[in-house]
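Standup notes
- HV: blocked on the assembly model, inputs below
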Amino acid sequence: MDLEEYRRRARTWLEANAQDGPDGRAGGASDPGGVAAAKEFMAKLYDAGYSGITWPAEWGGQGLTQAEERAFAAEAAAFTLPTYVFSIGLGMCGPTLVDLGTDAQRRRHLRPLLRGEEIWCQLFSEPAAGSDVAALQTRAAATDGGWVVDGQKVWTSVAQHADWGLLLARTDPDVPKHKGLTMFIVDMHAPGVTVRPLRDMTGRAHFNEIFFDGVHIPAENVVGRVGDGWNCAVTTLLHERLSIAGGVGMGGQKDNPVAFEALRRTADTADPVVRDRLVELHIRSRALALFNQRLAQETKAGIFPGARGSAAKLLLAELTMFQADLATSLAGPEAVAWIEDGPGDASPGGTGNGEGPGVGTGDGAGGDGGTAGGDGGLAHAVSLAPAMALGGGTNEIMRNIVSERVLNLPPEPRTDKNVPFKELRTSGEAPR
Amino acid sequence: MDLEEYRRRARTWLEANAQDGPDGRAGGASDPGGVAAAKEFMAKLYDAGYSGITWPAEWGGQGLTQAEERAFAAEAAAFTLPTYVFSIGLGMCGPTLVDLGTDAQRRRHLRPLLRGEEIWCQLFSEPAAGSDVAALQTRAAATDGGWVVDGQKVWTSVAQHADWGLLLARTDPDVPKHKGLTMFIVDMHAPGVTVRPLRDMTGRAHFNEIFFDGVHIPAENVVGRVGDGWNCAVTTLLHERLSIAGGVGMGGQKDNPVAFEALRRTADTADPVVRDRLVELHIRSRALALFNQRLAQETKAGIFPGARGSAAKLLLAELTMFQADLATSLAGPEAVAWIEDGPGDASPGGTGNGEGPGVGTGDGAGGDGGTAGGDGGLAHAVSLAPAMALGGGTNEIMRNIVSERVLNLPPEPRTDKNVPFKELRTSGEAPR
Amino acid sequence: MRLVPTPEQRELRDAVCSFLAAASPMPAVRRAMESEPGHDPEVYRRLAGELGLTGLTVPEERGGTGAGHAELAVVLEETGAALLPGPFLATTLAAILLTETGEKEILAGVAAGTTTATVVLDGNRALNGAEADVVLTIDGDRVLARTDGERRALRTLDPTRRQALVEPGGEVAAVSAAGIARARDLFAVAVAAEQLGVLRASLEAIVAYSRIRVAFNRVIGSYQAVKHRLADMHCTLEQAESIVRYAAWAADEAPAELPGAAALAQAYLGRACFEVASGSLLLHGGIGFTWEHDAHLYYKRAKADEVLLGPPRVHRARLADLLEL
Amino acid sequence: MRLVPTPEQRELRDAVCSFLAAASPMPAVRRAMESEPGHDPEVYRRLAGELGLTGLTVPEERGGTGAGHAELAVVLEETGAALLPGPFLATTLAAILLTETGEKEILAGVAAGTTTATVVLDGNRALNGAEADVVLTIDGDRVLARTDGERRALRTLDPTRRQALVEPGGEVAAVSAAGIARARDLFAVAVAAEQLGVLRASLEAIVAYSRIRVAFNRVIGSYQAVKHRLADMHCTLEQAESIVRYAAWAADEAPAELPGAAALAQAYLGRACFEVASGSLLLHGGIGFTWEHDAHLYYKRAKADEVLLGPPRVHRARLADLLEL
């Protein structure tokens, strides 16, 4: 089937089956009904052949290429699919098991993952190990028939719903930091696992902290080899970047109040300076969209995008900040203060508890357009915007990757490569 | 005398004595008459007490403070003084001798320097030692009663007129690079010194290359101690930055075709977008001007600006690029192509040798304003603009200085501190 | 022109700074912003009464200290740096408006620290409008005042300072076209001073963090990518401070320069403050995205302040007009 | 939409690239720009005749190759990267104009490589106007052509390409309002393709230099300040190439999208190319400021190209109109 035909069929299926509802991101933590509905949708998606498009048929996938996956993602961008809760499993954990899992692991886990029967999360980042993932401190100590894990993870999406986690832990602190790590499959329902929502700057809990207190993991749940966890993690992170660049699990721009199409309706385009700013946003948005399309076409043509996906991620992070900033700057005061029960009110972190008497939006005397026209959407956008520049690698890490792996420039001098982990500096310490 | 009174008197003197002529920068190399006139002006300036304002009275200076010097510079900015050819001596070489010279050296050199009788240049940079000055390769070998110098220097302003040079050379290649340097006073008329104009991207020769071929320097011309040249050079470079920040030897903005006052006359301010760009230029220009004034006032109040002067230099470099770019972008096609004999024609690097017949500026049929309105001034400005970001330390070096010496952030890890000079990498070599 | 604080201004700064460090450190700011009134009334009472800061620029004969806008700028820089919650800025703007228009009665209470007040800035929106004793409205060349009228608290991006919809109008409190025009410029200078404080504190926070946070066995402040961003932010701070000092000096000493200086101050500080706060937040990495870290409070205050007196283009357009472009 | 060159287009690129590397390497460019004609007529003759590039987009029945604008973009990217001096772009623009307006006689000579031509772009200014055989003027919906008329060479910022004041007008060569409108958009795409080449070559030059230039015992390409600037420039290149491919595709396959794509191409490429060329020059350090180094030639071409079809705001304003803002 050629790509256009594939795409046409995907659109037809989506039109028939995708409700135009929430993606399961908002309120998911407190809404098990939402998760149940999402699981139902995922089963339909799987049965229609749109789950695991690039995965081997042997493990439940469709055995197709990135081109079909991107074609489907491009079509799906016009809808809001309730697939957010599965995005970590589909984008990162599953592909890692496809690449590195034992056959027993693949047989046990991949099909339930693709069908949405089981939800996965990824457990790499720690408070003291963000950009420098390999500096993580969570310990896995060998014990009879397996391992015992103690430590803390952070920035874990969908962990509150997760059945399984892909965990990176330190199994040997006496060797250099990249050499003492091991990857595990951990049962998120096991005794000793505590999931705590992490309130972020939007006022919501998009992420979680996970505490491991003597959690037992059976030996057969090691992924790859003991001590080879860093290389396994590199595989996972590569899949993460590809999935971000490919739009897997990402919503479209259609409801985004700070995107060009929304601003052209709301901004004061009678002002030529405002018009010029919107032109700038259009230019940047189109430039990135075309770059992403070109990467997709190259992939189809057999040119692997590799680290160039990090350039797309960096540009997306910058565009996200730029457009949220621009939208609020153009809107003015109403972007930052709004009537609390506006339809899109989206910032529980904001203040104002409704204790005042009712003053209607339109009944002020002295102003033209000085009413609270905002509904909190812009405020939420500007609060959420930094997430894109922080998650999945900071802008600085992206620039390192682009300069080293695309432009082949040499790395910074490193002092942490050949030193036992336990002798390395940690944050807050004076230099040795 | 209070500062206002000092300033008032300086203005009066300048109005009476400063011709509104060229600063000696343009065409100086081929115009000994210009240098003679400059020397005459300098003698008058000295006699009036405005040369060496902060220098000790003992060596011919006025013994006043930076405040008076800045006050004089602020007044002088309204004029175009022919002092360019003395600026290296006044700003860098002289102050270094004041700080580090022997009494004999001070007695011999400082007064003739201040009176404009002798011209100085500074000989630090080399083709392979720009930002990394201490990597210089020019050798000074000990010989009977002195030293013999071989090597090459570059980026040397006013060397074609110079009587003396302040030279940094390597006297010991077997010790780490910062430890094997020595500073010398070199007679630019000595046998073996060759000065060659260096054509820069403007098409002119603002700088020179200097070749030393077995040049003899007597022992008494060592400045500071043998092997202590790096510390001496740090003193010189500190004076350089102060003199740039303080406006010593710098022309005013009054004839600058890319400054705000010129653009408000020439740009199409009927277009609100153009007006907004000019506002941006005004904001940036005022912001920097006010910062410079604040630094001057703090100096007067006894707060030493130190490395914060590097922040001002960095901002000036960025503003210089910004305004040249803006002016040419606003002007459009006439900024980059103009009739060759226009009054301000200023780019001998440009092409077009007048072989075509005469087509007048205004006699084209099909266009509104499409005539060659430019006179090359904008083109020259955009060609010269990078100089500010490259001379006196690149923007990257300025950012290092601000971050390390103002914000107290740690330096980059260094690999060149404790290694003999001769074992260090040089450009174009594979890594060891 | 005076761009360097006098010894007396430095003393004032130190006094305000010490007071806020003791009475309203960041944990207290967080408690206050989540409390029912949204601020600590005791802190406000001491600031207004004990330190007399709401009457700082009110003439002595009208119950104030009779200090200048250079002094006020020093104070607002510190309250901004501390993200002080509550009606201090709102009441200060009201004091400026009443002083410039020659009003006396309300001003007496404001200067004494017993009356909180606010000014309707944008249609029917006012800082701390729900809790202010007096709501002032500018109507042409008149200042109207009311103590009654409906109020409706708004949700705000910035959790550290509330806003409300109010009913504009009321009795005529003063009439003075020139006073109102000057007051609007002084608002711009006052907000710019607060923005300077927010900018400075944002930069200080990331500089301090970059000296202790380790990644790849080095503190992140030793990486050029971080160092150079911080150096650029420092350059922004230097220019921002220079502009605020200049605008405050013009407010006190060069009335003819005030309109241009005020527009310059808002045009520069609004962007500068948000850019530095935003850069500071991002350089903190993931920790900066958490609710528990203070970076987002500075980021949100910076954005709220940027649009407080209207979107940035308003100030740029005014500057263009003043420059006769 | 096709954003990736076909194998045939890659072959064309390689052929042009090899030709230019042999016939017009940078030392030859420098000799040519300082020569009396300002270019090497032999190089032009072979480019136009042997490689047939001046007739690339001219239909076969009118003596050309009948290739598309995607092919032309690939060629202009290479001539841009090589800073090829001479009337190739001028003649190409003329070929576009004559093709789109249905002219045949002059076009035959242009396609055969025997006639050089130029288009008056701005009042009475034309690229390579002094040496062109034919000068074309757009006058409303008519194209005028003349071979006579006064010419006056101009001094130019960019030493690698000449401009002249010419006498517009002449005989009517073609009439077609639609053809002229489309030709103007195609000019924008063609210049954008050249700018892409200038941008790419500027970036390649500084990437190569940063791998060999040593400062403080490390190649400068190992410093984050340099690496991160270069990473940002690479991001610019990726977007620039995507836009040029898109605009060229629209020229060939989606005429309705062409106006927007053409305005986008000029609005993005003009700035992007100058910023990268400028960053490349500065990161070269002092050597980049010398006449003998090529960085300034790229910088000057970038600036000249940025304003060639009018100042950047013209393209942004057109984009605003097309977007119905």
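- HV (later): unblocked. Chain B has three domains: 3-117, 121-239, 253-346+372-432. Chain B touches chain D through 80 residues (CB under 8 Å).
- Next: hand off to the docking folks.
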